[in-house]
Automatic annotation (TrEMBL):
Naturally occurring in which organism (per UniProt): Allacma fusca
GO terms under cellular component: plasma membrane
Official protein name in the record: Peptidase S9 prolyl oligopeptidase catalytic domain-containing protein
InterPro entries, sorted: Peptidase_S9_cat (IPR001375), Serine_Prot_S9B/DPPIV (IPR050278)
Gene Ontology biological process terms, A to Z: proteolysis
Length: 122
């Protein structure tokens, strides 16, 4: 039996949940980094407001932060209750992007990933 969670979607739609945007950013060298932004509910992107940004970093090789998995997290709380923007980035070396990218950080741990995060946030 396939369940599309219609009741849950209706319930969550009435809450002040963050706006979630998932996209990729092309970096130097041709790598496409997956990025997920949690934006405050009710944010009007065409208006000129400033919000604090938290960059959620998980630098462990083989890990994955950006996916289509739904759930509640610290990022959800900070975004919906405190009006922060939270960014998650899967830089080089993270999982599920092929062995060549996962091994690209071999003996360079902490260099390529940091450069990826800096390039995206600028």
């Amino acid at each position: 039996i396939l369940n599309n969670n219609t009741a849950l979607k209706d319930e969550v739609a009435n809450m002040g949940m963050p706006i979630v945007r998932t996209f990729t950013v092309e970096l130097e060298g041709g790598y496409h980094a997956p990025v997920r932004l949690f934006l405050p509910p009710g944010l009007l992107e065409e208006e000129d407001f400033k919000f604090p940004l938290i960059l959620h970093v998980d630098g462990s090789p083989g890990s994955q932060q950006v996916s289509e998995k739904w759930g509640l997290s610290w990022a959800t709380y900070l975004t919906s209750q405190k009006n922060f923007i939270v960014a998650e980035i899967d830089g080089r070396g993270t999982g599920f992007q092929g062995e060549s990218l996962r091994h690209s950080v071999y003996r360079k741990l902490g260099n390529l990933e940091v450069n990826d995060h800096l390039e995206i946030t600028q």
